[in-house]
Design brief:
Elements: H1 11-15, H2 36-45, E1 47-52, H3 56-75, H4 91-97, H5 100-110, E2 114-124, E3 132-135, E4 143-144, E5 148-154, E6 166-169, E7 180-181, E8 192-193, E9 202-205, E10 212-217, E11 222-224, E12 233-242, E13 246-247, E14 256-259
Antiparallel strand pairs: 1-10, 2-12, 2-14, 3-11, 4-13, 5-10, 5-12, 6-9, 6-11, 7-8
């Protein structure tokens, strides 16, 4: 399988797609892992945090794996932000994406039929000078309707000092926001920037210990500052969608069914890669 995808797709290609970029509130009267109050909070605020998924021993093993993978990628000419769609290339990343402890939480937000389709390491090295500008995930994705969730797994401890992610609480209710193209002067990893984010809600720091996760809506405004500390801040973003979401630009080839089924057969349900 070809595992090369533009990340993100070209803006002109996205603009050709007819996308429903409205927040679709979670309706789940019988959650199995989350509580009714947590689901209400997700609908209200657009995020949930923090949740312990992996023990210190387990996340230590994941970190050791990532350290080795990063060294290999950098030796091949990549950098600490370039490990994307990793579950189609590396078996251990596929295992994290499909991990039942994570999926149990996600299915309470997306329904019984869930596809996992994305995995991208965002690794801020000490003093790397790059921020992640305020943005909405859904703006970058050829997916419709907007029923997707990002799980942010802390590989390292993430706090204010080493530039943890920040949310604008409640901003997902404003739909697809107007953004401006980024420029080199912005020193941003991403190329879409939304200015004056506080007009949409209150900023919240997504402080996580290694092995913990947060969950956020694909429409929630979020970003992070440059890491000016002496500590690395690595996270693995894991992307999930309801199986009835349609993907353009061949992104359905990224999908793995992690709960229930895909009655339409839209998603490819890629198998675990053998490579480590």
């Amino acid at each position: 399988m070809d595992t090369t995808f533009l990340a993100p797709p070209a803006t002109e290609d996205l603009e050709k797609l007819d996308r429903d970029l409205r927040f679709h509130p979670v309706t789940n009267d019988r959650p199995q892992t989350l509580t009714a109050s947590e689901i209400a909070a997700f609908n209200r605020d657009g995020y949930l945090r923090p949740y312990r998924i992996f023990s210190e021993t387990e996340i230590g093993q994941i970190r050791a794996y990532f350290d080795d993978l990063l060294a290999r990628v950098v030796a091949a000419g990549g950098d600490s932000y370039s490990i994307s769609t990793a579950h189609l290339k590396y078996g251990p990343v596929y295992d994290i994406l499909t991990h039942p402890r994570i999926v149990a939480h996600v299915k309470d937000l997306l329904g019984e039929n869930v596809v996992a389709w994305g995995s991208h390491f965002f690794c801020k090295m000490p003093h790397d000078g790059k921020k992640v500008g305020w943005h909405q995930d859904a703006s970058y994705w050829p997916l419709s309707p907007s029923k997707a969730v990002t799980v942010w797994l802390a590989i390292d401890d993430a706090d204010v000092e080493n530039a943890c992610m920040r949310f604008i609480s409640g901003s997902h209710h404003f739909g697809h926001m107007t953004y401006r193209p980024g420029s080199p002067a912005d020193h941003s990893v991403l190329n879409q920037l939304i200015d004056n984010p506080e007009q949409y809600g209150t900023a919240v720091d997504d402080v996580l210990k290694a092995g913990e996760v947060s969950f956020h809506s694909d429409l929630l405004l979020h970003g992070s500052q440059a890491n000016e500390s002496d500590r690395r801040r690595c996270g693995l973003t894991l992307r999930y969608a309801a199986a009835d979401v349609r993907a353009g630009l061949d992104w359905n080839r990224k999908g793995v069914i992690v709960s229930g089924s895909d009655p339409s057969g839209h998603w490819s349900n890629a198998s675990r890669p053998a490579a480590e």
